Each structure stands twice: as C-alpha cells, then as structure tokens.
Amino acid sequence: MSPPRAVVLLSGGLDSTTTLAVAARDGFTPYAMTFRYGQRHEIEVDAARRIARANHVGEHVVVDVDLRAFGGSALTSDIAVPKNRTPDAMAKGIPVTYVPARNTIFLSFALAWAEVLGAQDIYVGVNAVDYSGYPDCRPEYIAAYERMANLATRAGVEGTAPMHIRTPLIDLRKADIIRLGTSLGVDYSLTTSCYDPTVHGVACGECDSCRLRLKGFAEAGIKDPIRYRTHPVPSTPQPAP
Q1: Are 216 and 191 a contacting pair, CB within 8 Å?
Q2: What gap in Å lies between CA 164 and CA 121, rounded to an integer?
Q3: SS3 of 228, please?
Q4: What gap in Å lies between CA 176 and CA 198, rounded to an integer?
Q5: At 43, phi and psi to the nearest 5?
Q6: 7-11, 104-108, 237-241: which range is least confident on average?
Q7: CA gap 83, 93 in Å, rounded
Q8: Number of H helices and number of E strands within the chain?
Q9: So what CATH class is 5-220?
Q10: What percentage of residues in the chain have a pLDDT greater than 90?
Q11: Is there a contact between 83 and 204 (Cβ–Cβ < 8 Å)?
C-alpha cells in the first residue's frame, strides 16, 4: 500500500521546512501548500519551490490570496518592519508583523485540499515557545481549529476519517527545532526566514525572525548556512574568554 497523504503548509522558512521533514519521517507522502499572499517579497515562495523539489513531495501548489487588500501588517502593507528589538520587547504584545487571520486562512485552504486528496492530516510549523506573540500559533487555537475542521468536513461529519492538525514543533525551542531538522537531513541553506531581505534574498539579520533564527543556531551549536547583511547576535557559540 502507498503511504498516506498529508498536507504540509510550506512557507520556505526554517520551521515549515523542518515540519515537512517530520511529516515524511512520520510515514506520510507530503503534499506541500505555499501561499503568495501579498507579502513584502516573493523570495520565500521561491525558497518553498526549491525545498519542495529537493524533498520530492507528492505535489506542490502555490495559492494566490491577496491579503494586501486588507493590509494591517508590516508584511502586507507599507508599515516598517521592526528591527533590533530586544528579547524582552519581542516577548511582549502582538507585533506589527502579525498578519490578521493568516493561519486561519491558510489552514482553511489546506483543509479543502486535504478533503480532495483524501488526507486526514495537516502539518503546520507553528511554535508557541520561540515565537513573536502571534495569537494563531497557540495550542488552544490549533485545538479549536481541529474541532471546527471535524464539524466542517464530510469525512468528519460521517465519522469515517477525522481530521488531525499536527503541530510537531509547537513546544520546541528554536535550537531544538534546528537540531531535529539537522538529524532529519534538512538543508537549511534552502530556507529563508527574514521579514525584510534584500532583492537578492540576503537576510537583514535585524528583524525579529532573523534574530530568533540566529539565536537558535547559536544555541544549537550549528552554523547558519544563509547569508546576512548584519549579525546582531552570533550565529555560532563564542568561546569563553
């Protein structure tokens, strides 16, 4: 019998790429879904394409959803991306890089595709530990969405194939995610995490996402293989004086 299918939300970032590897490890054939949603750049969409090809997914779709029509986020409007925030500042409040209802929208598309594919599992790389305060990355949100999914689908109503929203990274620190991905053979040089990269895809090294990524690689004791304009925190542990 062929392996069961799973839909994996693939942004081209570190977490979603690790999640893709976890889905394959779990015995699924991953079907990757990426969104061109009006974000500041298309570099992450290009990264997702490279990652999907390298991992031989069952299929990779890029869905167009124009969230710039609403704005309300530094990623979908002309609001400046915050730079060089301290860990304490990143831990307080919901930042302007939060895209309103983004995960709800993405998961809804993934749910529709899962029904068509006959898949019972959706993988999403949300994280509730090293994250920037996004409300749709919390365990209670995921649990509520899974309950809704089983009310809203034919298989859920008929009780033949309950839907599962799988979040294998939700309780892991960034360093642990990187160690997990490395153990699964993830090529992090294909990924991008920056909210404000150059036109050539070089990460800024200063936004919240870059800082969390650099900190994770430093704590994991692994060199970050992507390029940065600046390094506000070390990418590898520094020797004691």
Answers
A1: no
A2: 5
A3: strand
A4: 28
A5: -60, -35
A6: 237-241
A7: 16
A8: 8, 5
A9: alpha beta
A10: 78
A11: yes
